[in-house]
Design brief:
Length: 327
């Protein structure tokens, strides 16, 4: 793997984070001054750090849905490649769909984590400009979804559980993808994931956009990171359709009920995984550890279930969605 772990510095691209960035800069300057002089500034640094913690908690407790969408898209938020590097003890990537070719927007491979073996499937966005272009910014072609399903069937044959990481604005919308059966590939994945006779755990780690997310999103347990989003369409796409203007994206984000708390309240996800203070981009390793712990818990629970009960519970879980009180 060539991708490096996400850095812990904070970009000033998010308007609501700029006061926090200013405080961080002041703390860094005082530390540098304290190290290079005879001044005793430890007390002042400690006070500023406590102020930063309080202000960060206050800001992130009151984010709007649109602001959470922007956190989910943060350039330094940990990606699937970071989870592979920081969470797994061993990983062997598997390539190709045996029909058309290799789609870099979907990563599949055999993983080992704390003694547990499973198949990992995830959207891959890339970090450098070159990698992002090669991965279509996480927008998969039909061969990516066919690759995912072929590897899932392989995991079923080997009786390995499956873990998926969802992080895509949506499936690739190009003409070539449509010509090669984009809608059919996604629909087949959704259908066949219900029939997989091994445990399936799905985690939304960033963006969860439309059918592109659902193509690897049918599981026995579905979780979301606190500042991720899951939606039938992007806020910009919704705004363009309803208001004919991308400027209405914040209003669309609010109307779509796409935040982790909304999805948990509606019964569409099983758990919201809390992120470190200030978001996963501030502490990638901390975020990865929390996801790792949750995956381990769920895999342990699901391993105890007989196959017949596993399949029935998976079916009923999705069958109840969209009904009053989940009945």
């Amino acid at each position: 793997m060539t991708d490096q772990p996400a850095k812990t510095t904070v970009q000033d691209g998010l308007a609501f984070e700029r006061p926090l960035s200013d405080l961080q800069q002041k703390i860094a300057e005082l530390r540098k001054l304290n190290a290079g002089s005879h001044l005793e500034l430890a007390g002042e640094i400690e006070l500023l750090e406590e102020r930063l913690r309080r202000q960060t908690a206050e800001v992130y407790a009151h984010l709007s849905p649109w602001e959470r969408v922007n956190v989910a898209r943060h350039a330094e938020r940990p990606l699937t490649s970071d989870y592979v590097q920081l969470m797994l003890d061993d990983f062997v990537e598997l390539h190709g769909d045996r029909v058309f070719g290799e789609d870099r927007a979907i990563l599949t491979g055999l993983a080992t984590m704390a003694g547990r073996r499973f198949l990992l499937v995830g959207h891959r966005k890339g970090k450098t400009v070159k990698d992002r272009l090669a991965c279509n910014f996480g927008c998969a072609h039909p061969e990516g979804y066919r690759k995912a399903m072929q590897k899932m069937r392989l995991a079923e044959k080997w009786k390995l559980p499956i873990v998926t990481f969802i992080n895509t604005p949506g499936a690739y919308p190009g003409i070539g993808a449509e010509e090669r059966g984009q809608a059919s590939a996604i629909a087949r994945n959704i259908l066949e994931m219900f029939d997989l006779k091994v445990p399936v755990v799905c985690i939304v780690i960033g963006e969860g956009g439309s059918g592109g997310a659902l193509g690897i999103g049918v599981g026995d347990r579905v979780g979301m990171l606190e500042n991720s989003y899951y939606s039938v369409i992007s806020p910009e796409g919704c705004a363009a359709i309803l208001w004919k203007s991308g400027d209405k994206a914040p209003e669309a984000a609010d109307a779509l009920k796409l935040t982790s708390k909304d999805l948990l309240r509606l019964g569409l996800v099983d758990k919201v995984i809390e992120e470190p203070l200030g978001g996963a981009h501030r502490d990638p390793k901390g975020a990865v550890e929390r996801v790792k712990a949750q995956i381990g818990t769920w895999l342990g629970e699901l391993a105890e279930l007989p196959v017949e009960r596993l399949l029935e519970q998976r079916y009923q879980k999705f069958r109840r969605m969209g009904t009053p009180n989940g009945l």
